[in-house]
Structure formats: C-alpha cells, structure tokens
Specification:
The complex is a heterodimer of chains A (about 150) and B (about 190). With about 150 residues, chain A is mostly helical. Chain A is built from 5 helices and no strands. Chain B has a domain of about 80 residues: Up-down Bundle (Four Helix Bundle (Hemerythrin (Met), subunit A)). Classes of the chains: A mainly alpha (about 150), B mainly alpha (about 190).
C-alpha cells in the first residue's frame, strides 16, 4: 500500500479514534449501547485495517501472534474465573452479588457492576483475539499451486 | 413521520437490490464489495429499528472483517465465478419453497412495536422493573444487565462458542510453527498486489 498516500494518511488519522471508540463501547457498555462483543469486533476491525494498510509485519509488531493466540483463552478464563471467584466467595457460579470489597469505595465498582465489568472484559478479549487470529490465518497464507 | 417511512422504504429497497446484485454478478470482487454494502445497509436498518449494538456488530463484522476475509480468500483463488452450464432448476425450487415458507411464517408475527406482542408483555416489564433494584441502581442499561448478569450462563456459552470457532480456524488453517515465520517473511509490496 506504499502507493496510496491518501489511504495511509487517513488510516493514521482515523486509527486513534477507532481504538478509542472500541474502548468507549467496552467500558461504557453498562450505560450506553455496546459491550464486550461489539467492542471486540470494533477493536479487531481497527487492527485489521492497520494490517491491511501498513502490512502484516507492522501488525505483528502491534499484536504478536503468540500473544494473540494466548489471549483467546485468557478471555474465556477471565469470564469463567469470575464465576469460580464468586463460588469461592460463597455465592453461586456467576452470582456477582458477593463481589464486594472495601478497596477505594466509590471509585471501583462493586457487586453486580464489578462482575459485569469483568465478564464483558473477558468477552472483549476473546472476541478481539479470535477475529485477529482468523485474519492472520487468512492473510498469512500463500496461493496454492496453479495460481 | 412520512420522511422516516420514506427512509425505511429506501433502505429496504436498497437491501433487496443489493441482494439481487450479489446473486447475479459474476465478478467475485464486485460480489464481495456488494456483500459489504449489504452489511452496511443492514447496519443502517438495525439503527432504524433502535438496535445500535447490533448495528455496531453488523458494521464491524459484516462490512469490515468478513469482507476482508472474503477478499483475502479471493486473493488465493480465482476472481471470476465459473459460468453456469445449465439452468439450475432444483436449487430454484428449493429456494422458492424455503422463501415462501419464511414469508408465510412472518404473517403470524406481530407488527413492529406492537405493545401487545409477547416480547412486550411476557418478560420485559418484569426485567425493567427488577433490573434497577437488582443492579443497585448502578447499571442503567438493562440490555447489558440481561446479557451479562441475568443470562450470564448463556453469554459464557456464547464466548466459549467464539473461543471454539477461533481454535478450530487455527487448527485447520495454521500450519504448525509456520504462521509467524511465513507471514513476517512476506514484505509489503508482495502484500499490496494481493
């Protein structure tokens, strides 16, 4: 894409806003429309746009494939781990009401809010990394014989 | 009000036109572009139906990611669809019957925004009333409360489905130990002619 300065410049200009919007959708999902899945696909779309315009090696520096592959599992672990944590705290699986704490009260969310925050974070991590890994799988391949 | 209905009709007409164009066109690049346009129109339609979260997803996944995936698949195969030799009569019958069944099914559905439809009388009032109390007033978005808390098990299942899909794609498409090496060997000029 070296020959398309307009695309490169516009992508560079848009990239911070795409990423910011993804994080907004992720962390503001409790109040407005959105949540982990939406934020994940927006973030992944931003990464893929970066990879398309600046090449796969540049994207590999931002999102190294080994790290992304581990993040796939980490998201589900965060989600299920929240459930296990609530069980260890004496509640049922994914019963966020027991997630109380006395650390920075009023600043950090508690109970249901904290549980939903963690769970949406897990969804976001898994969705982002799955979408990025699928892109890596397709973009990293070379044509089969005859083409 | 008339203006809004005009927009509705315009978006639906464009959706139908794009769908026909995708089916008719032989050039696969153009067909992929049309599927992207279709997804954007779908996102616009979801926004009209007051579902911005679905519109986000449709725009990002349908118009963005899947278009890129289809294009990168085309880069590995052929750009033209093979010409059809004989008129496909059996598929036509199957498609017509399926479509007619679906249209017949929609006849029983309540109108959009009908206050007496089951979705508005069965569960929603109780959730809207309960949510503020259950969430201790901290979570004004009832959709998020339902997805992540009331239906937390379902969402865990969905996340696991996405996880499984990602692992399956990795297992099928990734050659052992080659992913990072093969792709970082490819330089930018090579990338741009794909």
């Amino acid at each position: 894409m070296d020959n398309f300065p307009i695309i490169r410049v516009i992508t560079k200009l848009l990239m911070p806003y795409i990423l910011l919007f993804a994080f907004y959708v992720q962390f503001h999902g409790d109040f407005g429309p959105g949540g982990g899945f939406q934020a994940g696909v927006i973030l992944a779309a931003g990464l893929i746009l970066y990879g398309l315009v600046f090449g796969l090696p540049a994207l590999h520096k931002v999102a190294p494939p080994p790290a992304i592959e581990r993040l796939i599992a980490l998201g589900v672990l965060i989600y299920a781990g929240t459930g296990v944590a609530t069980m260890l705290l004496g509640g049922k699986f994914l019963d966020y009401d027991v997630l109380g704490h006395h650390f920075l009260p009023g600043w950090l969310p508690e109970g249901q809010h904290l549980g939903i925050f963690l769970v949406e974070l897990g969804v976001g991590v898994t969705v982002t990394s799955v979408m990025t890994v699928i892109f890596y799988c397709f973009a990293g391949r070379e044509p089969v014989d005859g083409h | 009000m008339v203006m809004l209905e005009l927009i509705d009709i315009l978006v639906l007409l464009l959706l139908a036109t794009t769908a026909v164009a995708v089916a008719r066109i032989r050039n696969l690049w153009a067909a992929v572009m049309f599927t992207g346009i279709y997804s954007f129109l779908g996102a616009a339609w979801m926004l009209i139906l007051d579902a911005p979260d679905v519109a986000f997803t449709e725009a990002a996944v349908g118009a963005g990611i899947s278009t890129v995936l289809l294009l990168s698949t085309l880069a590995l195969t052929s750009r033209e669809e093979k010409p059809i030799k004989k008129f496909p009569i059996l598929p036509l019958i199957v498609v017509v019957v399926t479509g007619a069944t679906l249209v017949y099914g929609t006849l029983d559905m309540p109108h959009v925004g009908d206050p007496t439809s089951p979705v508005h009388t069965r569960m929603e009032p109780s959730f809207i009333e309960k949510s503020d109390h259950d969430m201790h007033g901290e979570l004004p978005n009832v959709v998020t409360a339902v997805l992540a808390s009331y239906r937390g098990y379902d969402t865990l299942g969905e996340t696991t489905v996405i996880f499984t899909a990602g692992i399956a794609v990795l297992l099928i498409l990734r050659r052992p130990g080659k992913l990072s090496v093969a792709s970082s060997n490819r330089s930018q000029p090579e990338e741009s002619d794909g």
